[in-house]
Amino acid sequence: MRKPSIGITPEGAPSIGLCALAALVFAMLGCVVFSLVFLVLTVFCCNFFRDPERVVPQGSGIAVSPADGKVVKVTAMADPFTGKPRLCVCVFMNVLNVHVNRSPVAGRVTDIAYHAGKFFNASLDKASYDNERCAYQIEDAGGGSWSMVQIAGLVARRIVCRVDIGDSLERGERLGMIKFGSRVDLYLPDGYEPQVRVGQTVLAGQTVLAAQKP
Fold it and tell me: Is 103 a catalytic residue?
């Protein structure tokens, strides 16, 4: 049996290292206040960039949440690739949530579209169209097309994409992250229905977000 573990995502190393170094330097200089400030920031960064292992549900016809956080919307929205309305589940991440994003289904990345933009609060409707974002189109084994969008938030200033077009992903596999507050939208293909409700807390790679209709 594999023991649960909590690691640190590689993107967090520079922030954690700089804060820890600053805390050490100020401590050596006798600047207690600044040393404590950077020590708190070091702890905050370690917490923010944590990357725990998840138990990914098995079975066919299901999709897992691509992000940790709270479901803020379940409604029809314009697909970022086709422009056609599709049922979408939006998950908002605050600064205390794990920010590593995972693939909702097993499949192949068929398209990636990055859009530079503004930094409105990620919980607002206009964030889906105006904020900096990175959209992924994933085709599952059954030919279903999934659109997943990482959206930068009010504080976030960098979207991390770890995959390329043509890559094959497993359900729950890590594919990127967003630094410091953000949102992820998942557009469902025909034949799938949400398994979550607005206000529900979800875990990336572990909570079943959608399932095929019976």
Answer: no
